[in-house]
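Changelog note: in this version the structure field was regenerated for every chain. One regenerated record is shown below for reference.
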Amino acid sequence: MSTIFEVIDSLSLPKKETNKLQIYLIKHNQERDILHSALMSPLKTDEDKLELLKEFLKTLSADLNKEVIILSPLPGTESETHIYKHRCYDYFNKIILESKKHKRFCITGNPGTGKTFFGRYIISVLLKEGFELLVDDASYSHLYLITRDEMNTFDVEVNHDFDTGKLIMVSSPKDLNIKNFCKPVNITIKVYMQIWSEAELEECRSLIYPEFSKDNLHESYQLCGGIPRMIFKCKLSEINKMITASVNNIGTDIFRYIGTLSDVDNYSHNLVHIHTNEEPVNEIINGHIFVNSPYTSCELKFASAIVGDKVFARLKEFYKEETYKFVFASASVSLLDSVRGHMFEIIAHNELSAGKPFLIRSLEGRKKSCAKEQKLRLPQLTIKNCYTVDDIEDGKYCKPVAKNFETIDSIYIGKDYDYTFQMTVGRTHDIKQHGHELLHEKLVVSQQIIPSDTILLFQKIHLKISKNNLSQ
């Protein structure tokens, strides 16, 4: 009786699909026996058998499209790996398999975001596609050559200067690790693993860590941001201790780190996160428009609002002059827009609630440079965090907790005037019309808080209507 592999070979499947089937069936005895029995049925023609194999191949492909992927032990692991499929996996997988231009693929980002898991996932994808892999694991002094039916090791030193095949590096953004690998810029693409959203963390919790409390997840996320390894492996008290230690370790080198990403201290990743674009983004350089592919742009943000406040408090206490200089000196560095904006927002909240004066002008004037400036001074106010419109309290400096809270950054309801404040370092900033209408009953006057280098150039705000409300 013919073996299943002989039957498959006799049916003239494309080599790639034949390899894919053989790799899978070698490791899965039960499925192999069931498929073999079905193929050996005397009632089936060769055409029927081909159709059966094609349907089986579809199920193999679907296996890696599940939300939770279970992988067999790989180099560096002793047991099965359960992986939550992050939203960027499909795109990374696609460019690695389909790109004709690139031969080197650098997967980087904050520690703890799932880069290592993606490395294990892509190994499984490539094996199922029938590729032979040479795997260099940092935990070992040798290489792994993995083929469809065996795994060999080689004790050699690797310099990644291979002339054939595709090279995939999974690493932190430290220059020491990735600089040489990324030198051939014409054949290299560097993509960033995105920080996780709270919704993704919650889905991962329900699928892989059901014993983990939903409330604990929310509290941890509010503190450290979207780093799954920190959230699922550390208690809230441990996370707080790590962040406190990182904040206490801050010096002026934090400005160098967030400006270059090249000198990465271990503590820095607890405080500053790398965010990236999930859609193509146009960038204008010397009048020419360039399109940045998804996951290739880099923007730095504080891990959370809590971390940003802690960092600023530390910098203000010990490095106040350097901090204020950084906010103004970084105006032309797009990489730092978010960090600069966050630090300016903290400065503005502190100054406003402390009763310090702000220069203001109307945005209605046509000639912005001639607009008349006045001073706004609030009384000294107690700061209150608000979760909904109903939490807004008269006579207090109210700060919405949700970052998209009707696109308003703070609210003050006084005896004579009511104010909403929006902090920005840009020259214009939209406001969602629907969100603004929800606050209209409580609020009268709206103010934009901007740096002094932008005040004369800032343009009138635009009320932005979401797609969902266009028909209304």
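Spot check on this record: The two ends are 70 Å apart (CA to CA). The first strand starts at residue 68 and ends at 71.
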